[in-house]
Amino acid sequence: MADFAQWIEGARPRTLPNAVAPVIAGTGAAAWLGGAVWWRALLALTVAVALIIGVNFANDYSDGIRGTDDDRTGPVRLVGSWLATPRAVLAAAVTALAVAAVAGLALALVSAPWLLAVGAGCIAGAWLYTGGSRPYGYAGFGEVAVFVFFGLVAVLGTEFTQALRVDWVGWTLAVAVGALSSAVLVANNLRDIPTDAVAGKTTLAVRLGDARTRVLFQLLLALPGVLTLALVLATPWCALGLVAVPLAVRAARPVRSGRGGGELIPVLRDTGLAMLVWSTAVAGALAVT
């Protein structure tokens, strides 16, 4: 029976920057348009955090019952490690996704009802990542989904539900955050190439191979730095986003030096921190301008 700490670890708290950073960035974009609304930002944050926790538990459940997590390096897997029953982990996933659905419903009703369709797509994407008969995470589309859901949808959705419109600043932020979110998954899948290949989980990293996956990670990590220069056109204060460069360099070092297995675990943490720092710095610059 898993204890409380193991359940927390099973929720994969290191992935929370992937949920928090897009809301910070989207709120900064809304503030740039003069439309930031704090309680709508909190609702968006609830949706994002509950969604990513739901994704993580659903992933734990689906990979666990398939046997994919029987031999795995990294954070604890509740089902794969026999710490919790599949039914209990499934219940945790459904509960988290239900919280996301309720918060998303409230947000859609006060902004635009058509967002209900977007929310339904997000929940379906969360489940079908590793669930169902043909999970897209097993076919190499996980990074694309992360870019779309935790980049474009999360940032632009946050901006729209507050300012009721989006602009080029929001799109630039969305692409940058999406790239960093995808980089987190790329690092995770780079670490798991040997075990995923054996388990039949054909991630993008398995398709590309070790060397090209390392190049992809570094390109995704560098993209927000380039986009920071574009955001300077909105306000020179967006250059503050470059304070995240040391974290990005630290995240890239183990990948660039060819390390693998457990040595890549800190890369996920540092990439998430870089995303969080970059989003906060740029959003703050936009909000006070």
Total helix count?
Answer: 12
Distance linking N and C termini: 52 Å
* Total E-strand runs: 0
Please tell me how large the radius of gyration is.
18 Å
Estimate percent helicity.
over 70%
SSE pattern, N- to C-terminal: HHHHHHHHHHHH
Largest sheet: none
Q: Sum up the overall morphology in one term.
A: globular
Please state the average pLDDT score. 93
- Global structural class: mainly alpha
Question: Would you identify the regions where 5 or more consecutive residues have pLDDT less than 50?
Answer: none
Catalytic activity: an all-trans-polyprenyl diphosphate + 1,4-dihydroxy-2-naphthoate + H(+) = a 2-demethylmenaquinol + CO2 + diphosphate
Main location: membrane
Enzyme class: transferase
Function: Conversion of 1,4-dihydroxy-2-naphthoate (DHNA) to demethylmenaquinone (DMK).
Structural features, described:
- Pathway: Quinol/quinone metabolism; menaquinone biosynthesis; menaquinol from 1,4-dihydroxy-2-naphthoate: step 1/2.
- It is a multi-pass membrane protein.
- Belongs to the MenA family. Type 1 subfamily.
- Its EC number is 2.5.1.74.
- This protein has 12 helices and no strands.
- The chain is mainly alpha-helical and about 290 residues long.
- Helix 2 packs parallel to helix 12 (about 265-289), helix 3 (about 40-65) packs antiparallel against helix 4 (about 85-110) and helix 6 runs antiparallel to helix 7.
